[in-house]
Every structure is written in C-alpha cells, then in structure tokens.
TrEMBL record, chains A, B:
Subunit structure: Homodimer.
PROSITE patterns tied to this protein: CYT_DCMP_DEAMINASES_1, CYT_DCMP_DEAMINASES_2
BP GO terms, sorted: tRNA wobble adenosine to inosine editing
Annotated active site: 57 (proton donor)
Residues annotated for Zn(2+) binding in this entry: 55, 85, 88
Domain CMP/dCMP-type deaminase residue range list: 4-113
Reaction equation(s) it catalyzes: adenosine(34) in tRNA + H2O + H(+) = inosine(34) in tRNA + NH4(+)
EC number: 3.5.4.33
A Gene Ontology molecular function term of the record: tRNA-specific adenosine-34 deaminase activity
Binding note for cofactor: Binds 1 zinc ion per subunit.
The keyword Metal-binding belongs to this UniProt entry's keyword annotation: yes
The family this protein is said to belong to: Belongs to the cytidine and deoxycytidylate deaminase family. ADAT2 subfamily.
Protein name: tRNA-specific adenosine deaminase
Amino acid sequence: MTHWPLPLPMHRALAAAKAAAGLGEVPIGAVIVKHGQVIAEAHNAPRTDHDPTAHAEILAIRRAAQALGDERLTECELWVTLEPCAMCAGAIVHARIARLYYAASDPKGGAVEHGARVFEQPQCLHRPEVYAGIGEAQAAELLRAFFRERR
Amino acid sequence: MTHWPLPLPMHRALAAAKAAAGLGEVPIGAVIVKHGQVIAEAHNAPRTDHDPTAHAEILAIRRAAQALGDERLTECELWVTLEPCAMCAGAIVHARIARLYYAASDPKGGAVEHGARVFEQPQCLHRPEVYAGIGEAQAAELLRAFFRERR
C-alpha cells in the first residue's frame, strides 16, 4: 500500500511532539509556516515551563509573532498534531492565522469540531481555513504510546 | 447614594487596566489572589509585546504559575475587568483557577456567558465558580473612554 507523503510542516510537528514525550510532556507539536518557510516550531511544555498556557500552538504563535515583530500572523499557516483546545483556538483567532492543519481529532479536549467550536460562534472575529486528518495515524499513535507507558 | 466598596483585587485590576490605556493597549487588567495575597497582576499588552496571546488573564496566569513553580493554580482566584474570551477561559480551565470574578460582560468577545461558553461545555475538565458584575461600571467606562478617544 502506498501512503501519500506527509507535508514537511506536519513531519516537523510530529518530530516536535516526539521530543515533548522524551521530556515527559504530552506529545503535541506545532509549526508555523509563512510563504512556504517555517518561522516557528514548538512542543507542549506546561510541566517543564510551569506554565498552564504552554501548549504547542501558544508557544509557536508567540515565537512566530516575536520573529515577525507583529501581533498578527496574517498569511501564516499553523500545523499541529492535535485538534486545538478552546485556549489555542482562541489564540488562533487573535493571531489571525490564515490556515489551520491538524492531525488527530480530540473529542475530549478539542474545540474546533467538538465542544466550544470556537470558529463556529457567530461573534468569532476571524475564521481560519481548517484542514483535519493530515498525519492523524502517526499523531494518535504517539499519544497512545505516551499514555500506555504511564498507566 | 452609598456604593458598596470594591474588593481590593478588583481595585488593582482596574488600576492595571488604566495603565494599559496609557500605553495604547485596550484597558483590561487582571489580578491573581491566593489565600488573600495578590501573587500576580497584569494588563493587556499584545501590541507592546508583539504577542497575540498577551491578554491580561494569560499574563497574570503565567506570572502566578512562575511565582508558585507549578502549572496548576489550585485555590487561586482570578479577578479581571472584562469577561474572558475563549482563549482566556480555556487557560483558566488548564490552570484550575478556583474562582473567577469579572467586572464587565463582553457580548462581542466574551466566552463565559456568551459565544463559546467554555465552562458550560460537557467535556470541560474544570469549572471555576464565577462571579460577574463587580466593578462593572468602572471597567466599562474605561473601555468606552479608550475607544471614544480613538474614533
């Protein structure tokens, strides 16, 4: 069976997720791309950083905004290994991310296609284009392996 | 007419909001209290910091978690001058804030009693106690004055 090759940003997001697992953090990784260039990448780090907001998406958005010297990430893409939660979906709106690509769905914590459905709210100021499922199997397996070891 | 005096943390959150306006930032302030002691305060700073996540609540939560050396803010109260957005409500959940006090409601951007209603989602992992309207008139007037000047 031939698999369609994963786009490079999702490869890098998965590699960042793997690095998080090595540090005892839930394996989630994120990459921000502008005009085909990776401008920021990050993994989940709330335990290491003593920071409940240190999700991969938040860290990647903060780094990209620093790199660009602009609070708006217009024309940027966010690639992340798991469906963003309400906090991260809200940050995506504030940052004006143009396109969101995520791998695995998250029925428990996700807020894009589940729960708070942040982008579907009538008052939502900015709606990114959303593409789900790219690298889903790899991202889900990383999470399963992480929680299996900890049980 | 006698007004019930505002609790000290809301006074300080309003003072932080005023400081934000002086820097050209939307006037919103937040304070975190643990066992009667203020352990962090912050104002809105996305423009100054080039950081779309730099809402008063996020900055206060990050500072409090740093101060405690813990990603969980159990037994802490968050006092903020405006109803939190989806991003900040999500951060409040992740931080396990025990009680949320906010001044003005925000029908456009709020996600507590409006829009995404983050704490009312069935999958929401942690629900703070919520008290609204304390200092509402002062907080709303700060925001009105700020936007009036900019029109």
